[in-house]
Specification:
alpha/beta; six-stranded parallel β-sheet; about 325 residues; four-stranded parallel β-sheet
Length: about 325
Amino acid sequence: MQKRLFGNHLIILCLALLGFVQCKTDRSANKQHRIAIVVSTLNNPWFVFLAETAAAKSKALGYEAKIFDSQNNTALESDHFDNIIVSGFDAILFNSTDANGSVANVLKAKAANIPVFCMDREVNSVDAPTSQILSDSYSGAVAIGKYFTQQLNKKGKYVELLGIVGDNNTWARSKGFHSVVDHYPSLKMVAQQSADFDRNKALEVMESILQAHPDIDAVFCGNDGMANGAYQALVSAGKANTVKVFGFDGAEDVITSIGEHKITATGMQFPKIMAETAAVFADEYIKGKRDFPKKIPVSVELVTAKNIADYIAYGKK
């Protein structure tokens, strides 16, 4: 009789343990995975679009998504990564603050087995990120350089506004541009200065440059935010109708300005492609895929008044 009771209790205990394990397994299976989107700054509409597109695609794929703003500060970016790791996010879609300075943050995530997919901005490591989806900034700037020389008839004085010096895109765009214009000795660069991809700083920098060089013919800017700032300075100086402004990004206000013949041209990046590709890669990683291309280049297209009808903000119609 005692053996039978013991046997019954053992069976009940086993069933209870099996139910607990099954319940725990079900809860784990039903757990919503989370994707973090870390962007360099939300003080630029282009990056807002990149972040929101990445979050929307992540949510459409069934994930909880949270955006983190690094405010162009690598230390704040590091704090975000620490928070993301402790909070148990499953993947990071990343737009870095600094090509070299951000590598340590990506390595922290890798050590915690959290994949990092870079969007638009590169980090200087082959192994740290799982994949990098990047605009072909060099080729895009080559196209702008060619159009620039045509618009200036291969002669004149110009200014270049550089982006953040720690971002590879800054130098890729500058080098692509100069690979063309430096072949024309009658095109003379009278000033080259960083404005950190920031509209307000570009306004200040351009105002200062115009005091020293009031007779320029053009400005090449490493992004559209700076192009807007430079144009505003030219308006204030009464030179907006005589100085040509060239940007890079495909931001909404610059697309409008090109249509209004205020800004001459820009390089259209495709943030939607970069953001959605990164989200899809994260989804595939979470579901078990491990083989991803280390770098995927995304083409940049020249936008001018001649083809503006084919484009909208951040992409093609």
